Amino acid sequence: MTTLSYVNIFARQLEPLAAFYSGLLGLEEIVDSRSSIFRGFRCGDASLGISASDAYELLGLRQPTGEGERNIVTFDVESPTEVERLVEAAKGLGAEVVKEPFETYYGWYQAVLRDPEGNPFRLNHPGRRV
């Protein structure tokens, strides 16, 4: 069985972006994985990694050029009220709301945001709004 271990977000500024996600979502850092170019956080059954741009070379990847989203990270929370609370908290931490909380056609309640570096992410409650 294949499982997801990490989702990584590349950061222009490692510390501020790591602080944004860990502070907003209350994530516990995986201190053993800390380096000058990486911060890791426990996030349910998988982990969230924040990688500095130096990690591109380490991994043998090219830095992207041009604009446009290629990925979006979705964080599940326990209730629609928590989606709304976290949207307000994220705005206070410098996030931009792309789409205010809404019920999707498949019955989930979510909001779409951009972190302070412009990376898109969703706050999601996987169930119908009560």
TrEMBL record:
Domain of life: Bacteria
Residue ranges of every copy of the VOC domain listed in the record: 3-126
SUPFAM superfamilies tied to this protein: Glyoxalase/Bleomycin resistance protein/Dihydroxybiphenyl dioxygenase
A Pfam entry, by short name: Glyoxalase_6
CDD domains referenced in this protein's UniProt entry, alphabetically: PsjN_like
InterPro entries according to UniProt: Glyas_Bleomycin-R_OHBP_Dase, Glyoxalase_6, VOC_core
PANTHER family registered for this protein in UniProt: BLR2520 PROTEIN (PTHR36503:SF1)
Name of the featured protein: Glyoxalase
Organism in which the protein naturally occurs: Methylobacterium oryzae
